[in-house]
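User: Could you write out the 3D structure of this protein bound to iron/sulfur cluster? I've included everything you need below.
Assistant: Certainly. Input first, then the structure.
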Amino acid sequence: MKRADAKTTAAAAAPVTKGKEKKKGKENYRPTRNACKLCAPLGAALAFKGFSKTIPFLHGSQGCATYIRRYLISHYREPVDIAASNFSEEAAIFGGQKSLLLGLENVCRQYRPEMIGLATTCLSETIGDNVPMFLKEYRKGREDGPPVVHVSTPSYRGTHAEGFHEAVRAVVESLATAPETPSREGINLFPGMVSPADIRHLKEIFKDFETEVTILPDISETLDGHLWSEYIRMPEGGTPIQKIRGSGRARASIEFGRVLSGQKSAGKSLEERARVQCFSLGLPIGVSESDRLFQTLSELTGHRVPERYNAQRERLLDAYVDGHKYVSGARAILYGEEDLVIGLAAFLSEIGITPVLCASGSKSGLLKEKLSQVTPDISKIQVEEGADFSDIEEIAAQSAPDIFIGSSKGYRIARALNLPLVRAGFPIHDRIGGPRIIHLGYQGAQALFDRIANALIEKRQSDSKVGYGYM
Ligand code: SF4
């Protein structure tokens, strides 16, 4: 069968039904084999790394902290210190209060942090440790110590994306204060799980709009830093604690994430508690979603869009025209955090690529609805929430895709299907430069467009018997 025929046949058969949905009942139960998500405390630890001189602290077993450290280091290629209360057998049975208090004391003595970000793991959640009560005990006589911000992150309840957002919300709810005077200044930005390069680009954009911005959290330096001549326990960078406290005095907040817009968030919490108006936008990937960001900034600041961004936009549109014959009509498998998938789907729709499968390990119940807001025909897209990579593999095998777009966790499937994988998001463990991938704004879309078009060209080139040097 020719490839075009194969595509038509497969498309006619879509949507593909997952095996576990065919029949209900115990005999058809399928365990998670390779979840398309990571654990919730990992997301929380990542968020805490974006606050100045903050040490992430996991209440639970040592193995969780070791896995999360290793996972983050393999992507960011930076030292990532994560403390843990290191449950013993005794703590697992009788509770971890003693381990937690001892751990907090050790961390304060050794690191002298400005803040401790405390996330609970599956073990401490399962045994029902009353962490707020433990912290109340801990704070007695230690009122001058660094704030300890607690977030409840059992992985069986949420993914790394939820852990990330919950941690940011916990920090803001713990530290931000409502203003005593009516004067307001600056804008808060809640970018979500984006790369350090994305955050640096966002800082440039705000600077060009001559506007003070508080980015919560800011991993642009802490997770993509400089060469050190000697080990530094608490690297420079991250949102200063004073700025977190002052976020309640901002003129407005902007948060990225169409799914996040339908959930509790730090931005909405600040709106309720400190009357900081929150603007929820999609992750600004591609022209349309980036336009919304620039338009919002223009309205909030009273400045016109700086000329360099108009020029970037024009160059991007020119590139879309130049490259349309290579990308138009292609079929993509997209996977990752829900808001990243939605942002990428919006961008792909602009360049004529159909995201035939949009999959995420999260289960917000909002993915399909939000995708329908940014794509022209949702009926052409198979949407999978709570996805497992095994499901993705089965569906991809029947969907005749041309390309995979997502983290390096999809590499094995892409390789088995002999298809290119354009790496985006987190984690990227099999390449250098994950933290420097830029996804956002016209500049990010330009970089993604070139990478996707070139991956499709390279595939055609390497599949060709002739070996064209001019495509
Ligand atoms: S036990 Fe839970 S918290 Fe620990 S690594 Fe596994 S999923 Fe994450």
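Residues 40-175 form a domain with the Rossmann fold fold (CATH 3.40.50.1980).
User: Perfect, thank you.
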